[in-house]
Amino acid sequence: MKESRIIRLKGMEFYAHHGVLEEERIIGQRFIVDVDIHLSTNVSMKMDQLSETVNYVEVYSIIQKSVEREQFRLIETLADSIGIKLLEQLDCTGVRVVVHKPNAPIPGVFKDVSVEITKEKQI
Predict the structure, then answer these.
(1) Which fold has domain 9-94?
(2) Which of 34, 93, 96, 111 is the most exposed place for a label (fewest CB within 10 A)?
(3) What pTM did the predictor assign?
(4) What is the pLDDT of residue 64?
(5) What DSSP element (H or E) covers 95?
């Protein structure tokens, strides 16, 4: 039987200062982050213990620090940075990170601008 385990955190909202334009880096704006954390299927979940999985609070904290404490011009770089940190700090096999910038400075009507990256641990 093929099995996969994915923990998803969706719609995490942060106020931060990323952007190409100087005004974006000074004033700041809202960013929304979604992540999928791919867990190893080698671990048994029979014990029903937090030690068998990834702690959601730790995931949120890693993302919050990346978004709020660092500054990037591109949301592509922000997404990549989040992905690298999650892979380094969590017991997971891969991650998918989506960074949304709903108020990007685009002259026109649009719902959302987002970037998606996926990364896997090299074994």
Answers:
(1) GTP Cyclohydrolase I, domain 2 (3.30.1130)
(2) 111
(3) 0.92
(4) 98
(5) strand 94-100
Question: What's the one-letter identity of residue 99?
Answer: V
Tens digits of residue pLDDT in 26-45: 999 999 999 999 998 776 66
Average pLDDT, the chain: 93
What does each C-alpha distance from 57 to 60, 90, 97, 115 come to in angstroms?
5, 12, 17, 23
The stretch 4-10 carries a mean pLDDT of 93
Eight-state DSSP code of residue 17: -
Q: Which two tokens stand for residue 84?
A: 């690298």
3-class SS at 22? helix
Q: Which two tokens stand for residue 29?
A: 């704006």
- Name the helix (H) or strand (E) containing 6: strand 5-16
Paired tokens of 116: 């998606």
Q: Which positions are annotated as active-site residues?
A: 101
Domains of the chain, residue spans: 9-94
